[in-house]
Amino acid sequence: MRSRGTGVATPVPRAGAARRIRSALAPLLWIGPAIVLIAVVVLWPVVEMVRTSLLKISSSGLTLGSRGAQNYTDLFSEGDLVDVMLRTLVWVVGVVVATMVLSLGLAQLLNARFPGRRVVRWAVIVPWAASVLMTSLIWKWMLDNYFGVVNEVLVDLGVIDKPVNWLAHPTQAMLWMMWVAVFVSLPFASFVILAGLQTVPGEVYEAARVDGAGTFRTYFQITLPLLRPALLIASIINVINVFNSFPIIWAMTQGGPGHATDTTTTFMYKIAFFDQNVGESAAMAVVNFALILVLVLLYLRASRWREEVS
Amino acid sequence: MKRHLMAAIAAGLTVALGMTGCSKGSSSGGGSSDGKTIKFAAAIYDADTKVYWDDLIKTFEAQNKGYKVNLEMVDWTQIDQKVKTWVQTKQTPDILNYNAYSDFARDGLIYKASEIVSPQVLSDFLPQFVAGAKYQGEQYGLPFISSARQLFYNKDIFKKAGITDPPKSWDDVKADAQKIKKAGFIGYGLPLGPEEAQAEFYSWAMNNNGGWVDASGKWAINQQANVDTLNYLRDLNKSGLTQPNPETTDRKTVFNQFALGKIGMGINGPMARKNAIQPVNKDLSFGVAPLPSKDGTTHNTLGVQDFLVGFKNGGKNKDAVSKFLNFFYQKDNSAKFLQTEGFLSVTKSAGEALSSDPYYKPFVDALANAKFAPTDNPAWSAVAGAVKQSLGTSVANADPKKVLDNIQQTAEKNG
């Protein structure tokens, strides 16, 4: 206290400027680590990705110099690109919509009071805790043409009369993989929504009951609107995760037959490691990144998130 | 609460977007600065591979005081990704066991064979393998192991179907497959999935005078002989004589079914006995015959070889690399590897050591007429990649000519 007092009394202007700089920099001490983390973990890979997409990289992996926009030209002249993009859209929208609808129900269930609720809540977390790759491989084997349990059960029940090679037919394979993607996305989405449900104050429901609103009306006019922030977060993070999901498709079909079950993420991998073209693959990664940014921004705009959070 | 929400959104976006950035993967660096410690990246052929290398390295280090070999085992499914990452980040191992070498040679990353093995070792390599280990007339790859493909057939199924001799011509194959189908089994196991479509296709195409390149060495993937080959295989599939969906089936699956006695015929190499048939069904009664050809007279076989290459990494490692390679190519050491894994020899000396087991004889004999994939062309990896991705679709829904045209385009684009 005293030393600070003398400091103020000293008539040296430079000390004041230094102090002003110091106090301006003081917050850096707290937000500095976060900035460094973001720079190293988020920004640097993005810069590296864009840089790689402009390079000419030999099939061995050696960098041979700049290639300008040629990688992008090559990418956009790939005959399969349009199909792959459209399929990615179907994949993302399908998985996210199904996940959100199912999660709303699941969250409602988990929010209700019933004996054994704790056990059920834990059970819902399991697909989240298990490795996605492992889950996908298990499903791949369950759907196997020769040994799969799915075929066995369906044949025994008389639903089909001989085993179906599910993952070899693009449409069926896509549906099964979407189911697996929904399955692994459910825990996160339902727990976010559950958290949202728990923030809805009981008095609101009481008031609704007093005003004579039925169950249906209460849900759609009170619960759902109040859940909007939770739904927003859950669906955005879900969109990003599903968009970039690699292990499910890679483990179950490798995007095949041909490119019939590829999304942009597996397509990108194939360009690098089958076509031996790392530069073009990086161009695909940049396009992927841009797409996802645009998608998220459009979504935020459509849902007028500023009104929600500010 | 609103402010928390903002923070949650920001944190969530940061994490999720961060995950979209490509991860470089971790890898340890090359050897030490004194050049006496080297890193050796070996491919995993099966569970015994690591045991073999651990033993060999122990003996090597005991006999060469001061030298050290750090072993890294790499799975075949991850090796392409790892090797590319190593080259890009300048962390290549000193010795690599791989199935390609020519793009390393083109990019000046590896030693010439004559720089890292002794003249005795060089002259011990069998000439047909040396031809496929050169780049622009100079040998870079060190032939490591080889295999030749033959037609495996199930003797019990043949008996039940009333077939006396293995098929010689393509017509025989189809007729036999029909008999096998009538007897209640799958006629021919056709793996055109991404694992090895290029090998299966070439095994058929070469026996119809087709192939990857024409006489002058130019890409000729969409030549008529290849289109005919695919049309023949497509007919087998469409007539229900193969297992369902050849376009997504890998050789592993086909030979699992073969070992279980459900498939009558399939093409594979000598290693199939050890790694596919014996673990599943020790008592399977099977025979081995030359690959069927269109006209049934001459029978070519597909030869496959893997390589060892020495990366320069600045050059200090040359002495250690060469010591270790010369040690490996000593007759007993390389013969032991072949015996462990069930492959064929690439050297004269180890071949003699192997000839005791009659099982290998038809494979070794066939090797004399073997044709190889054009591994000496740096564009081959990209071509093989394109084949793996799309060739299978030609026996299902896509048009064979169109599929081959597309692969031809890829090949020409890569030079």
What does this structure look like?
- The complex is a heterodimer of chains A (310) and B (415).
- Chain A has 2 domains: 2-52, no CATH class; 80-309, MetI-like fold (Orthogonal Bundle), CATH 1.10.3720.
- Chain A is 75% helix and 2% strand.
- Chain A contains 14 helices and 2 strands, in the order ααββαααααααααααα.
- Chain A is flat.
- Chain B folds into 2 domains: 37-147 and 304-371, D-Maltodextrin-Binding Protein, domain 2; 148-303 and 376-413, Periplasmic binding protein-like II (D-Maltodextrin-Binding Protein, domain 2, 3-Layer(aba) Sandwich), CATH 3.40.190.10.
- In chain B, strand 1, helix 2 and strand 2 (68-74) form a beta-alpha-beta unit.
- In chain B, strands 1, 2, 3, 6, 11 and 12 form a 6-stranded mixed β-sheet that branches. In chain B, strands 8-9-7-10 form a 4-stranded mixed β-sheet.
- The radius of gyration of chain B is 24 Å and the shape is globular.
- In chain B, helix 8 (155-161) crosses helix 9 (170-182) and helix 15 (331-341) packs across helix 16.
- Classes of the chains: A mainly alpha (310), B alpha/beta (415).
- The interface between A and B is large, with 57 and 56 residues.
